[in-house]
Amino acid sequence: MRIAVASQNFRNVTSHVGRTRRFFIFEAVPGEPAREVDRLDLPKDMSIHEFRGEGHHPLYDVAAIIAGSVGDGFARRMAARGIAAVATSETDPAAAALAFVEGRLAPGAPHDHDDAGCSHD
Please, which domain of life does this record's source organism belong to (predicted)? Predict the structure, then answer.
């Protein structure tokens, strides 16, 4: 299963997935270490929060997207494309991908719209 994990610093799982532009892409199957197969380093206009194109987005090629927080709008947008969007408290990207495919991913907090650093259109 191909899984994108938000990681703005390419070290840890990042919150606010809609604005994140950097993602690890893993292939993961239960019982085996998740294997990094790609990294996305998208321009600002390609963050899901900014992307309004009807065309193809690189994140549309994954089965799941994992981040530290996931807003309802992002989750709905991805679900409409058959992609699971999941928040987790796990900080290690590869561990998060493996835990997801094994059905044991630690849940994360919902996206907080009262956060002073968060502004939506």
Answer: Bacteria
Listed residue (121, 103, 3) closest to 62, CA to CA: 3
- Beta strands in the chain, from DSSP E residues, in sequence order: 2-6, 22-27, 35-41, 64-67, 84-87
Q: Which of 39, 44, 46 is nearest to 23 (CA)?
A: 39
pTM: 0.88
Read off the pLDDT of residues 60-113 as tens digits, 9 standing for 90 and up.
Answer: 999 999 999 999 989 998 999 999 999 999 999 999 999 999 999 999 866 555
Q: How far is CA 32 from CA 5, 6, 29, 82, 86, in A?
A: 17, 21, 6, 24, 21
Residue 85: name the closest of 101, 69, 98 by CA.
69
- Residue recorded with tokens 């719209």: 113
Question: In the CATH hierarchy, which fold is given to the domain comprising 2-101?
Answer: Nucleotidyltransferase; domain 5 (3.30.420)
